[in-house]
Design brief:
The chain is an alpha/beta fold and 334 residues long. It has helices at 2-7, 12-27, 53-64, 93-96, 98-107, 119-127, 197-207, 251-259, 277-283, 293-299, 321-333; strands at 40-45, 70-74, 85-86, 111-115, 135-139, 151-157, 185-189, 214-222, 225-227, 232-234, 240-245, 263-268, 289-291, 309-311, 314-318. The strands form three sheets. It has a nine-stranded mixed sheet, sandwiched between helices. Strands 12-11-13-14 form a four-stranded parallel sheet. Helix 5 packs across helix 10. The longest helix has 16 residues, at 12-27.
């Protein structure tokens, strides 16, 4: 893969120019963005791959749900439906996508969960509901500039920060690094638990945020209890198992399990993997399966896996959490 990226290096300037020009046309108002009276908070990244958007959306829901009527709006990647869909009792990963279904499964009493590839239409549909939301969280829409979000949260991982990366196809950036200038908040995600102030200072210098931008650091907090459809199990009680992942970056999870000195074999699929009948038949032979919450949403309805399938919940811990919350709420009250 790396060799192919080097071969494609001559294409990089053209991709850079195309994405830079597109952003410039939006910045100048030549290409039109639409703003809304309902507050819209966009969560996204500059790079392809997992930066922790799903746990950040869940964190924002937790922060806001007791004071505001909240809705999430996602594309609904790899769902088998089209157009605007609102999560309801008949929702599944196939109808609204795995990550939105995770939001719905966890917060259905607190938030509206919607999907629409056309974000403008999705927002308008939500605003026209009888129980219209007071704030809309846009999932993975940082490059969707036809919508002018009132507030942008940009995520970048500590291990692969955008300021060390290059645009596609040589690097992983969807647009030039200058796209970070649109962010109101930049969150450096998946930080080591032992990250010290010196390390933070080095990152802050490279980000070089302006006076109107806020930078926070976050790390993944893994639960100590595994969950299934009907049972629970302590992580410390695991002996040997099969780890199944279909996410962009499984390394933080495998690192966590290895620190617990657990024995497991790992079936590592591509992000948003659609499990085939052959995959399910293979998994049915396993005695115990541990997976991510996102993958659990796609696997939990298979009867042959019901008694052996568990997932490990995660959350994010943000440093300076009170300041983070106050920054979000200052936008909403303004």
């Amino acid at each position: 893969m790396k060799i192919l990226r080097y071969i494609l290096f001559p294409i990089m300037p053209f991709y850079y120019l195309a994405t830079w020009l597109r952003n410039k046309l939006f910045d100048l108002g030549i290409k039109k963005s639409k703003s809304y009276s309902t507050p819209v908070i966009c969560v996204g990244n500059l790079s392809v791959g997992g930066t922790g958007k799903t746990p950040m959306i869940e964190h924002l829901i937790t922060v806001l749900k007791n004071e505001y009527k909240v809705a999430t709006l996602s594309r609904g990647y790899k769902r088998k439906t089209k157009g605007f869909q609102l999560g309801d009792k008949n929702a599944s990963a196939e109808t609204i996508g795995d990550e939105p279904f995770q939001f719905y499964n966890k917060f259905k009493e607190d938030v509206l969960v919607a999907v629409d590839a056309d974000r403008q239409n999705g927002i308008e549909q939500l605003m026209n509901l009888p129980n219209a939301p007071e704030v809309i969280l846009l999932d993975d829409a940082y490059q969707h500039r036809k919508v002018e979000a009132g507030f942008n949260i940009l995520l970048t991982t500590y291990a692969n920060p955008y300021f060390k990366d290059y645009v596609l196809p040589t690097g992983n950036l969807r647009e030039p690094r200058s796209g970070a200038n649109r962010a109101n908040i930049i969150v450096v995600t998946k930080c080591p638990d032992n990250l010290n102030e010196t390390d933070k200072t080095l990152v802050l210098k490279r980000i070089n945020a302006d006076e109107n931008q806020h930078v926070f650091f976050s790390n993944i907090a893994y639960a100590e209890t595994l969950l299934s459809a009907e049972k629970t199990m302590k992580v410390e009680d695991l002996t040997s198992f099969c780890l199944v992942t279909g996410i962009a970056n499984s390394k933080p999870l495998t690192d966590f399990l290895e620190t617990k000195k657990l024995k497991f074999d790992h079936l590592n699929f591509n992000d948003h993997h659609n499990f085939s009948p052959a995959d399910i038949a293979e998994l049915s032979k396993k005695e115990l399966i541990v997976t991510t919450e996102k993958d659990f949403m796609r696997l939990k309805d298979y009867e042959v896996l019901k008694d052996k399938l568990f997932y490990l919940p995660i959350a994010i811990a943000v440093d300076k959490e009170p300041e983070f919350r106050d920054t979000i709420k200052a936008y909403l009250t303004a």
